[in-house]
Structures are given as C-alpha cells and as structure tokens.
Amino acid sequence: MSANTSSKDRAAALLASARRGDFPPAEQIREFGESNPAEFFRDIVEPLADSFDPAQCAAYERLMRAWIPALPPIAPLIPARVETVYVLSRVTLGADIKIVSPILATMKQRFPAARIVFVANRKSAQLFEADPRIEHLNADYPRSGPVSARLRFAYDLRARLLQKDNAIVVDPDSRMTQLGLIPACDPARYFHFHSRTAGGEGTDNLTDLVSHWLQATFGVSAPAYIAPRLQPIPHTGKQAAVSLGVGENESKRFGGDFEEKLLAALCIFHDIVWVDRGVGGEEARRVTAAVDPSLLADRVRFWDGSFAGFASIISQCDLYTGYDSAGQHAAAAAGVPVITVFAGAPSERFRQRWTAAGHRHIVRIAADGLAPDAVLNEFITWLPLD
Fold first, then answer.
1. Quick check: pTM over 0.85?
2. Which of 155, 219, 308, 356 is least enclosed by beta carbons within 10 angstroms?
C-alpha cells in the first residue's frame, strides 16, 4: 500500500483482502494496527466480527495472528470444586446485559457456594450493584491506543487470574481477550462462548444462543437480568423511558423533526416521559432541543446520571423506546415492553442477533430505507403498547 494512501482507504483495502482470504505479510498488518488503531478496529475488526459470518470471523482470527500465536484447542472441564467463578465483561453495556447477565445468573445457580466475580469496568459493574452475590474486580479495557496496548491488557489480566486456585473463567467473547484469542487463565479452566460463530449461518437471537450454550456447558441456564441500585421515581400514572443516544454511530438515528415528533407522541400516551441525556455533550444538547418546552413543566423528566441509574428508571416504567442501544436490553431484562427503532445494522443477521429479547412485548421497527415519517407512523401504531 502506498504511504500516500489515506488510513481509511488502507483499512478498506485490508478489509477487502481479508474477506477474500488474501492476507498481506504479518509485518504490514502489525504496522497498520499499531499506527492506525482506530481504523483497524472500527473499519476492519468490527465489520468482520459483527458479520456473524463464520468465514469472516475466521478472517478476523487470522488477522490477529499477526500479534497472537495460535494455541492448540483444549476442551475445558469443570473442576470437582469451584470456589470462584470469574465472568468477563463484554465492555459495552448492552452486551453486558444481553449476553453477560444470563451467564452471571447461571453461575449463581450452578455454583451456589462459589464467589461470582464480575471482571468489568465501574459502569458495567453498577448494573449488578444491588445483587449481593456479584462481586466486582475492576478491569478497564483500553478502548483506544495501539493493538499492542490492548494485548498487554489481556496478558496482564491473564497474569491476575492464572494462579487462582479452584477457579474458572467464563468468557462471553470479550474484547478483553480479543474475542477469546488470549485465554484469561489455564485453558483447561477457561469456558469461552463463541458468540460470533454460535448459530452458524442461522438467524437465532443471541439471547437464545447464550442460553443454549449455558445449558450444554453447565447443565443449567438462566434469563437476563439487571440489579442496579434503585433510583426512586414518583409512581404517578403511566411512564415511559426513552434513549435517543447512538454512541457516535449516526447511521442509527433519524434527522429532521423525527425525534421531536416521537417525544411528543410519547407524551400523548404517558403521564411522565423520562429522557436520558447520557454523558452530556452534543448528544445531550440534541436530545434537550428535541423536547417541546411546553412539555417540560409536567410531562418530561431528564436523566443526567449513570446508565445504571437510568436502567433502574427503565425497570419501573410501562414502556421503553429508542434507537438500537443498551436501553432496549435493560428493558427486556426487566420485563418492560420495548419498541426499538433499529437502523444502521451492518447485516440482517446482525439485526436478528441483537434485537432485544424477553418475555414481554418487544417490537422492532426495521427502519433502514424508510422515511422518518413512515417510521414514526409505524411507531404510533404500537402506542399504547400494553
């Protein structure tokens, strides 16, 4: 590749070659990953992993072999005595609810006398703060910086967990281990859920896939849940929670006056509407501007705190809605009806895998290719959702 070629163009070329199975020399892959880590992970790793295509997932692993040597496969065995179960975070909040929380719940059932330790950052740990069975081991995965820095994190974590006696590690396909390529302990005690290849080329939801894996591996499975510290809210009339955050992925949202109209529709059918303003900044300003000032006095309440606090609010509401984000999974885990406006998915299989799943009403509006007014009209047909 020419030195004058932009990093984005180089990433596109490397992604295309990986998909063809035509890989450049390992030193070229390492040079690009070290010099352009944002593009390497965003424009190459994520498209391969998010495809849920076994061939593309194999291409991801081959790319990472430029840094990580392959290990012989070893089938883990549950020890006769398990005193501690370490469960790794998926790093993102939605995945920690949808995939990791069923693992935590299952480990509590399968090993009732063991310590259950959630290896995660503080934001993820807060989702289970009110559960006395869940302990927290802080681990802040570096979401920026060169590939080598992220690998050092994985090897440091392995060093922390490797010597733990009578312990097992459950890995939900975590970024912490580069999707299981660096086992976080002795492979004989390391249980890895291959979320990217589970289900093959089918369209099963990740909620079902993790449940099947838990049942096959540990003989029991449990549903997703959340246990944040309770955020008291006034229980007056019908209440809805909404998040319009997109995590800097603008392909997930609709412009124009779509958000203003959506919030106004919610206020017609609900006495109180809780609006998450996330971590502030431009996204908070956008959400604030979408609220009709006349509704602020008695209908709309803004939430400016942690996501765990907002998850607690969601769990007490009659409806949750928003774009594809962590809020839909919190609602589904709490048994709250959900309407998700799902746009910007890289593939239909991705959409099927990541749609919220639970035992209450869950509506997914497949919004790609639709005009904002068409999405809004479909949304309104589901209100009120009982």
1. yes
2. 219
